[in-house]
Design goal:
The longest helix has 25 residues, at 69-93. It contains eleven helices and two strands, in the order E-E-H-H-H-H-H-H-H-H-H-H-H. Helix content is 46%, strand content 3%. Its main location: membrane.
């Protein structure tokens, strides 16, 4: 078959290729598409020369224009530090207790703390710091480790179970998983804890037995009155504020398998002034003591 054979139906020349009686038409790509493709290839080549593009052993090609997004961020941060200037220096030198006494310094610390909170803390605690299941509400007056300025500052600095040598550390036993309590005993304790905050309990559960089990196993941390111990990070069980849920099923799960939330040590990521501003901001949300 000749390559220049003209297809009778379409009037287009064929390429000479034929499969099972089906002939391939010689239909070239549109010129506009080809020129666009060539232009994109040229643009890509010029881009790789002008901007950072190729990885090297320990770095990358910097490009003829010397552009670097990392350098831009560093320049923006330097400009921000210069803008904060004198106020930032005063905040760095001021004692935590004195910041809230100076209205101008307090306003500056809150503004910086709010921005840092949105960037670093809001993903867990929420943009309004109201928390969610497993993440404390920072607007109320219920604190595991204390709500004073110093306590907040330490918690933010070193975190909770973060691996930092100065982190807040505690560990609630997994009473069911470890075999310390049986399933029916866990149900009794859970219902006794529900009764402490005036919540309804399961009918037929022996609350007196639950009270005794609580005294034998839980009071050492939560206290005989179950109002908690901030030195140990043990929560108050007499209010209706629950970190992981206050229904029977949630309490049974907590008693059985324990809980162990982790908060990062921000001293490893943020500068001391920003941490100080964060402590002030959280303290002034309404729940700080």
């Amino acid at each position: 078959m000749a390559k220049n054979e003209i297809d009778a139906v379409t009037g287009t020349a064929t390429t000479g290729h034929e499969w099972d009686g089906i002939k391939e038409l010689n239909t070239p790509l549109p010129r506009w598409w080809l020129w666009t493709f060539y232009a994109c290839c040229i643009w890509a080549a010029l881009y790789m020369v002008a901007y950072p593009a190729w990885p090297l052993v320990s770095s990358y090609t910097s490009g003829l224009l010397g552009y670097s997004s990392r350098a831009n961020v560093a320049a923006d941060m330097a400009a921000l530090q210069a803008l904060r200037g004198e106020k930032a220096a005063l905040l760095a030198k001021a004692d935590l207790a004195d910041i809230e006494k100076d209205q101008a310094l307090l306003a500056f610390a809150r503004a910086q703390g709010r921005a840092a909170f949105g960037d670093n803390c809001a993903p867990c605690h929420g943009s309004g710091a109201t928390g969610s299941k497993g993440y404390p509400n920072l607007n109320d007056d219920d604190w595991l480790w204390g709500g004073t300025l110093d306590a907040l500052h330490q918690t933010i600095q070193y975190g909770i179970r973060s691996g930092n040598a100065q982190a807040r550390e505690n560990q609630m036993p997994a009473f069911g998983k470890d075999g310390t309590l049986k399933k029916d005993e866990i149900v009794q304790v859970a219902n006794y804890v529900l009764s402490l905050s005036g919540q309804p309990t399961r009918q037929g559960v022996d609350l007196a037995a639950g009270k005794q089990l609580f005294a034998d196993n839980c009071a050492v941390c939560h206290g005989e009155d179950a109002k908690g111990n901030q030195e140990l990070g043990a929560p108050n069980l007499t209010d209706r504020i629950w970190l992981y849920g206050g229904d029977e099923a949630s309490l049974v799960e907590t008693i059985t398998n324990s809980r162990g939330g982790v908060m990062p040590a921000w001293a490893d990521r943020l500068d001391p002034v920003t941490i100080k501003a964060l402590a002030v901001y959280v303290h002034t949300l309404g729940g700080g003591r």
